[in-house]
Amino acid sequence: MRLRLTVPVELFAIGLAFLLGMLVLFLTGYPPFSALWALFRGAFGTRNAIGQTLTQATPILFTSLAFLLAFRSGIFNIGIEGQFLIGAFTAALFGISFRGLPFPLHAILALFSGGFGGAVYALFPALLKVYLGAHEVITTMMLSYVALYLTSYFVNYPLKAPGWVAQTELVAPSARLPRILPPTQLSLAFPIALGLAFLVLWFLERTVPGFSIRAVGANPEASENRGISVRKYQILAFVLSGFIAGVGGGGEILGVHGRFVDGFSPGYGWDGIAVSLVGRLHPLGCIFASLLFGMLRAGGMTMTRVTKVPLDLSLIIQALVILLVAAPVLIEQLLTRRRKPQKSEV
After folding, report:
1. DSSP one-letter string for 211-272
2. What are the chain's domains?
3. Rounded average pLDDT over 235-255
4. I need a surface site. Which of 69, 150, 239, 275 has the fewest CB within 10 A?
5. Over the stretch 287-298, which tens digit does the pLDDT of each residue have?
6. Which whole-number Å values give the CA distances from 212 to 63, 205, 222, 223, 235, in the listed order?
7. Taking the model in full, what pTM does it have?
8. b/e map of 70-79 (b: 16 or more CB within 10 Å)?
9. What is the pLDDT of residues 221-236, one digit of tens each?
């Protein structure tokens, strides 16, 4: 099934979400127009604001692409957060441990080590799914919490750097991703994420494995009958999904923080699921949806600082966008799969 971007519908839903958000602001006693202006100014008003918006959008773009790739094979991988954290931790360890490597080799290998960590962590629920029938929603969700507490243990005890903050030592300078819009935190991870979005689009639309993944997601029974191994391509999609999430975690560590910090992710993996659905499960849609959420995150902080509007109200706007745009998409996809059409439309 070819998923298309219905741009006017999405724009209408997003505009309606902002209107409803302004109504909430008005009903709670805050000036809606001033707050909305502060939000947009905080997201795009200055060079630093643009850098902050893109910085916030970068990890969400990675995680949304990770969810999309698995979902197109019929896998509901909601363990993106755990794979993101494992990838970040693995990249940090590589950046700390191998200090003799030159730049950019060290940075590239550290980033790929993050992807490798995420891929391996995704392999476990993939095998449980295809060979034992364990539902991926349960296994990936539980493994996300395992990743959260496991990495927290390491940075609080055996790998904790001196000081009161639970974090590792700094990675070597040769492992850091360069900043591309100083003095903001925007790093080379952002163009990498953009390139990955186009790569995922090309992979799904122009390659045999991508076609097979879409066929398996559209109709596993018909795919099996036509000689496409459902197990093989669901595992492949699961592992590639974990790899992308892990690269995203590595990019956040190597490009922004410079070390693994306990609790550095406010839930990028969970946000990626919503962003992927807002983007209509299309790589290009994920780019625009992640920019929207990056704008709400960055602009929401300015809105709070300037107008004293609680940051929670910008989260209400995010929730409205998800409800108005993403929820119908998810319901449509689940209903389509429940009907199990006889022919796959890839």
Report:
1. HHHHHHHH-HHHHHHTT--HHHHHHHHHHHHHHHHHHHHHHHIIIIISS-BTT--SSHHHHH
2. 50-338 (1.10.3470)
3. 97
4. 150
5. 999 999 999 888
6. 22, 10, 11, 8, 12
7. 0.91
8. bbbbbbbbbb
9. 999 988 999 999 999 9
